[in-house]
Amino acid sequence: MAYAFFAGVPTVAFIVAFLRHWDLSRPGGFGLPGWAALGASYVFIFAFVPLLQMFQLWAAGRRSRTLFGMQHQALTADGVTSSGESFNTTLGWDAIHKAVETRRYFFLFFSARGAFFIPKAHIRSESDMAQLRSVLRHYLHDRAYLNPSA
Of 89, 88, 86, which Cα lies nearest the Cα of 68? Predict the structure, then answer.
């Protein structure tokens, strides 16, 4: 909604101004030309908001005890277990919405925005990677979006 408002409304205003031959160089609110007032919304939504989100992620990462130290994942018949210095979590296979394989990672999504990730660089051999794919296919069936060539 924010992108539709802060990018869509000024875009429509620019198009209407162009079609009606309005002079956007004349001073308007705060003594700024009309194009600057409309353009400020682009700066807000495409520069300020992403910087604010990056700061919030950085600040949350500094406060979250679960992000510190080494983390371990284990896949068992019961589900996926993830543990670290300050936590131990087990989710059943029914709690995993889908598994997605990318070029560098396996992602096991437990919500639309949350996932366990397994870096492929940390998998010891190609046979271990094939075994991981086999386990994911066995427990997740059509919810496993894995490399088709594997």
Answer: 86
* Distances in whole angstroms, Cα of residue 96 to Cα of each of 8, 77, 87, 116, 139: 36, 13, 19, 10, 10
Closest CA to 84 of 99, 65, 112: 65
Which of 70, 140, 133, 88 lies closest to 106, judged by CA?
133
Whether 68 and 76 have beta carbons less than 8 Å apart is answered as no
pTM of the model: 0.58
Task: Give tens-digit pLDDT for 42-99.
Answer: 999 899 999 999 998 888 777 766 666 778 888 999 999 988 888 888 999 999 999 9
How far apart (Å, rounded) are the C-alpha atoms in residues 36 and 21? 17
Task: Tokens 């096991």: give the residue.
Answer: 108
> In the numeric block, which tokens belong to residue 51?
């910087």
Tokens representing 85? 């210095």
Question: Residue 8: what residue type?
Answer: G
Half-sphere exposure of 35 (CA within 13 A, CB side): 7
